[in-house]
Amino acid sequence: MIETHELTKQFNDFLAVDGVNLSVGAGKILAILGQNGAGKTTTVRMLTALLTPTHGWARVAGYDVVKNGHDVRSSVGVLTEQHGLYMRMTAFEYLDFFGQVYNLSAAARKLRSDHLLEYFGLIESANRRIGEYSKGMRQKLALARAMMHDPGVLLLDEPTSAMDPESARLVRDEIARLKSSQRTIVICSHNLTEVEALADQIAIIYRGQVLIQDSLEGLKSAALGLPEYEIKFSAAWHESRVDLPQGVEILSRTATSLKVRVAAPSVTNPLILKSLSAAPVMAFQEEPRTLEQVYLKVMAKAKGFEHVQ
Amino acid sequence: MFSKLRLVWLVAGRELKDQARDWRVLAPMIILVIAFPFLMNEFAKQTVDFLNQYEANLILDRFVPFSIMIIGFFPITISLVVALEAFVGEKERGTIEPMLSAPLDNWQLYFGKLLVGVATPLIASYLSIALYLVLVVRQNLTLPSPMVMLQLMLLTTAHAMLMVSAAIVISVQSTSVKAANLLASFIVLPVALLMQGEAVLLFWGNEHILWLAIVGVLIISLLLIRVGIAHFQREYLLGREIDVINMRWVWNTFWRYFMGGAKSFGQWYGSVLPAALRRIAPAALAVTLIAFISLWMGYDWIMVNAAGLINKATPERLQKIETSISNLPDLTNLQGSLNAPFLFMNNTRAVAVIFFAGLFSFGVLGILIYMLNIGVIGGLYALFELLGMQPLPMFLAGVVPHGIFELPALMIGSAVALYMGAALVTPQTGKSMGEIILELLADWVKIFFGVVIPLLAVAALIEAYVTPGLLLGVMAK
Prior knowledge:
The complex is a heterodimer. Chain A has 10 helices and 14 strands.
């Protein structure tokens, strides 16, 4: 569980994080999006008790990040922006070292490192020096380190960057599994497709401030307005009067298609179909609205530009 | 406690393994450990042959211990690179953040690094010394006595501790390995100077003073370790990434602390300066206590050492000493050579020397100089007493009038040096080391110009224009 209140960090005259309020429960994933230098890393560093907040507070896994820094660090697994691997160690040695730091028994360390190396496909190279690893392998090993002590909270900065699609899928599956086992996870990422697939909550941060925070659907509604649907007909349909239910706004109409905006799709969409029972409906589909659109729209608004494709 | 120490050992073990796998560290160390004793041995042989021509046996005896000290020193300077990049190197390689994010306390990380930093050069030094001793035995040269050998090993250990603890402080505070390496000269040069002094002691044959050097170096090392831990902040290790000298920030910070928010000179003198004086009050108390101890030490030393000499002295010699002391203050010409500006400059320089000596030794050297100054007064008192002169009236006339201004100035100046040393080894969260140093410097400037200088000016005037008259009056009686 992560909770922050007016979390603020000032470096001399630079306000890096400005009054951030976050709440992420167990079994939930929060994704933090933002430009480089927006304050994502600083926020994560405050959540790992590496930086002391200038103002506000944060509790991670039930511990205050200022008063109980040691407990916070024991409870979280961190994947840092730079992997931070010791190049002259082997993967086995590396995981074993951090296992000892986290006070795992020898048997637990062996079991855990074997499992993680096996899962991430590194077991064959486990006795090779990390310096000989590819970029993707290093990323996977860094992730294994973050998971070594099976932490209740995971803070992951770009977890799949530098990975091939197969490995990235592997990592996403593991994150999903951790979520289902009630872990609290925060991901900082520029990979919006990945965030769409994983996150329960998304926060967009700009110049240290959270501009918007909601579920994916909530963000889409807030940033792009109500969802739009296109109804396609198999043949030209010229019926002039259509009794569409309340809360439906017709955006455009041709002989073979109808575009509508719907306030409450779960309730209204079945009624739309019912009212079009006489029409030769071939397809009823939502107009694609991606997180990328949301992100660009929110960022443009923050920067003072409204005209974004 | 054992589990906490286990983590220190864990950090050290990992680091040591890393060093052992790095040929760039290993190769020069191995070459140095093996080659340098042979080089030194050849040099010793040549020197011995040369000195034998002049039957300089005393120096010959001392040459082997000197060589051992040098042989122990060189591997430390080379392996200093290990300590210098302990933190800043990890920062540059990006490996520091996972370590800082782990449940390791600051002191565990610090001591883990320190342990390796000290162990690596010491292993190299001990091996090098051992090899040299084998060569010495094979050359049939005289080995140092077990006591001198113990001193040399302790001295090498103390040098390693001093240099490594300073290097780790630099490593924590630096923003790049390049900057840390450049700053290393501030370690190597003072230690090289220190060794010159120790070498003199070795050649001189004053081994008992060498013990003081060992203890002194170890105390400074412990203070440096304390400074390192006190100012070890994870935040600063992650935060500062660019080496930029921001003179504007330096000046603004200094000025802010110097002015202390005062709007006028009266406000500064009435509230900011007294606040600075209140801060040094505990140090002033300690310095006052040290003054009494120094007076007694000076008095006692002269009583013990000079009494024997005076007893052994011939009547003619005694007469000569008494005459020279009676004529010593040529008070008629005093104002020609010892005028007020001269006295003022001399005393100001003494307080400044105490400050600068204290600045580089956490107050320790500054206080030693202060003790020497005060000790001289006690010593003179004892000397006058031994010579049968009446010291009290002479002191009341010759020291007290200007002393009531000069001594407080000296004591306050020394108290600031002590306060600065103590403040540097005290943890202060939320401030960088640079800011703390500027704050302390501002306090020193405040007190130096606001209190010490005016007191010394008054003392110089009294000493030049009032004291000679009073002294002449007493001596005439």
